[in-house]
């Protein structure tokens, strides 16, 4: 089977069959990553450029590792110290890279819609590694893979997305994906961090009390407070946020059931999550990081045409 699209620009454009195919393929690649030799020659003749116009550690390393595990040739590009800092346009930069015969571009950019712009102008396949406050599709895919792996299903699962919904591309991609796959969704956090249109636009639950949200859900996907994206004061202090919306061991112990804790990282310890929650048995945060490599291997492999996986 193959994906119905040449690019991965966002979850919104994907068919549920595409999502299912990516998750099933990621399961196969996770098995590859458990072997003594964790490499397959599947993309040996494919050249991929990692084009990061925005700082990133986990996502960039995860993509680089996925590409290396697939035996692709990789080029790493960051905007600092490049011709972009001298005024070169995005299209000029990419066209120059494409003249080197690149097959695929993994791109992170601070401008929403930048990968979509590229997809209209260049022949290479584009993978969106995060664009502004729009989407972060591979994060949603690895989150879904991690939930399905731990809980056995996505359909009917109750997932609370907690925290800075307004500035989070992870939240948007997760909402699109979970709705397509039949999960129930709630967003929870301060009223100032949840857009007023959420409930009506996405037909999902909205909750402003953290304990109520946690009592309702099977899985809490806790988001980082993105201070760098906030251009106004939306809550009084990080300490006040932690007291009202932070998840502590005491809060989890007060619930009538045990729930799963997730976080896309990096964690602001003592703000969204206390350390004894982030490092607890209920947390699958490190498993998400591990699953990110397998999920991104699946995306790259399928966009390249889904050839035979050789041992």
Structural description of this entry:
- This protein is of the alpha/beta class.
- It has 2 domains: 16-135 and 291-303, 3-Layer(aba) Sandwich (Rossmann fold), CATH 3.40.50.1370; 137-289, Rossmann fold, CATH 3.40.50.1370.
- It has helices at 16-33, 58-69, 90-98, 114-121, 137-151, 169-180, 198-202, 210-216, 238-245, 249-253, 275-278, 285-303, and strands at residues 47-52, 73-78, 104-109, 125-131, 158-162, 184-188, 205-207, 219-222, 260-262.
- Strands 7-6-5-8-9 form a 5-stranded parallel β-sheet, with helices on both faces. The chain has a 4-stranded parallel β-sheet with strand order 2-1-3-4, sandwiched between helices.
- Strand 1 (47-52), helix 2 (58-69) and strand 2 form a beta-alpha-beta unit.
- The radius of gyration is 19 Å and the shape is globular.
Q: If you compute it from the alpha carbons, what radius of gyration comes out, rounded to the nearest whole angstrom?
A: 19 Å
CATH arch. level architecture of the largest domain: 3-Layer(aba) Sandwich
How would you name the CATH homologous superfamily of the largest domain? Aspartate/ornithine carbamoyltransferase
Helix content: 25-40%
What's the order of the H and E elements? HEHEHEHEHEHEHEHEHHEHH
